[in-house]
Design brief:
Elements lengths: L7 H21 L3 H26 L3 H31 L13
Helix pairs in contact: 1-2, 2-3
Length: about 100
Amino acid sequence: MVLETVPAEYYLLLSAAVFCIGLFGVLTRRNAMLFLMSVELLLNAANINLVAFAFYWGEVTGQTFVLFTMALAAAEVAVGIGIILVLYRNFDDVDVTEATTLRW
């Protein structure tokens, strides 16, 4: 039985599509949670690229970078949710355009 692999171009097209969706979300959304999810899409698009190139070249360095990127994404979500909670507590909304300053 011969297993055919998916060409690297398909992964790159998937990554470009996910990146475009994330970029559209970052540029158009005003809700802080949707903004945070769009940033996660951008990071996942970069992860898809790293894994695709690691598979294409037959090395594991891309997968190692993906692990670091996932740790960075987890830290970004923790800080982002903290900011969103402060935003909701002070302004009773998670709209990023309403809060121009976060004063005490």
